[in-house]
Amino acid sequence: MSDVQLREWQDDDLPTIGRLHAVSRQHAYADLVDPVALARVSPASQETVWRARWAELREGAAQGRPYVALLAEAGGLSVGFAVAFALGRPDDGSGAELNALHVLPSHHGAGVAQALMSGVVAALGTWDVPTAHLLVLEGNARAAAFYRRTGWVLRGAAGTHDVGGAPVPVLRYELGLR
Ligand SMILES: CC(C)(COP(=O)(O)OP(=O)(O)OC[C@H]1O[C@@H](n2cnc3c(N)ncnc32)[C@H](O)[C@@H]1OP(=O)(O)O)[C@@H](O)C(=O)NCCC(=O)NCCS
């Protein structure tokens, strides 16, 4: 897809982010998360989540911890987003976290994720951190393949992540930045 455009989030993007996150999770996690828990993931629940995180990101930035929060648009539609931030203190050698990268199922395999990843990595490269990390649900084979292709290396099991109130096992990947 040639017409992917990235831009930084604005305050009024949060309903869009919530919707993208809910649609993406419902699709990608259908076989990985208990259906009752997954049913709790809605555009409204995810807008609430991101409203709080957006406030935290900006507060962190005011204290010297940079972040990048990107919205991808294609054909006049919002089709994906990504968020990464520098950590206040290193996490097992990592100085930054790629916290979320989601693309609408209709736009998988179209280069949107690659554009978002390139935008995130460009930002990471300006933060003077040696390594970044991310967590991905165990069994999320498509995401794992995408991360491997974009240079991330599997480091192993990393506990659980809450999805709709259910703890789901996650794997940690790292990306060297120097
Ligand atoms: C993860 C995500 C951003 C990747 O974007 P994408 O457009 O699907 O990525 P691409 O199509 O460029 O790459 C996906 C890779 O997975 C491969 N793949 C597709 N389905 C697969 C499957 N079931 N098992 C294993 N690999 C699979 C593709 O062949 C491709 O690999 P290749 O380029 O080496 O051939 C996107 O799939 C997404 O938003 N998923 C839902 C949200 C998510 O899981 N985000 C990560 C949370 S940490």
Give an overview in words.
The chain has 178 residues and is an alpha+beta fold. The protein has a 7-stranded mixed β-sheet, with helices on both faces. It is globular. The protein has one domain (5-129): 3-Layer(aba) Sandwich (Aminopeptidase). The protein starts with a strand and ends with a strand. The mean pLDDT is 97. Helix 1 (14-28) crosses helix 3. Strand 3 and strand 4 form a beta hairpin. The chain has helices spanning 14-28, 35-39, 43-62, 112-124, 141-149, and strands at 5-8, 67-74, 77-91, 94-103, 131-137, 153-163, 166-176. Bound molecules: coenzyme A.
Question: Layout of SSEs?
Answer:
Elements: E1 5-8, H1 14-28, H2 35-39, H3 43-62, E2 67-74, E3 77-91, E4 94-103, H4 112-124, E5 131-137, H5 141-149, E6 153-163, E7 166-176
Helix pairs in contact: 1-3
The structure holds coenzyme A (COA).
The site of coenzyme A has 17 residues, from helix 1, strand 4, helix 4 and helix 5.
Characteristic terms for this protein:
alpha+beta; Aminopeptidase; 7-stranded mixed beta sheet; 7 strands; single chain; 178 residues; binds coenzyme A
Output the strand order for the largest sheet. Answer: 1-2-3-4-5-7-6
Q: List the total number of helices.
A: 5
Which CATH first-tier class would you pick? Alpha Beta
Order of helices and strands: EHHHEEEHEHEE
Count all strands and give the number. Answer: 7
Shape: globular
Each distinct ligand? coenzyme A
Oligomer: single chain
Residues in helix, %: 25-40%
The overall pLDDT, averaged over residues, is 97
Give the structural class. Answer: alpha+beta
Main beta sheet strand tally, sense and closure = 7 strands, mixed
Low-confidence stretches: none
CATH superfamily: Gcn5-related N-acetyltransferase (GNAT)
Strand content: 35-45%
Number of domains: 1
Assigned CATH architecture:
3-Layer(aba) Sandwich
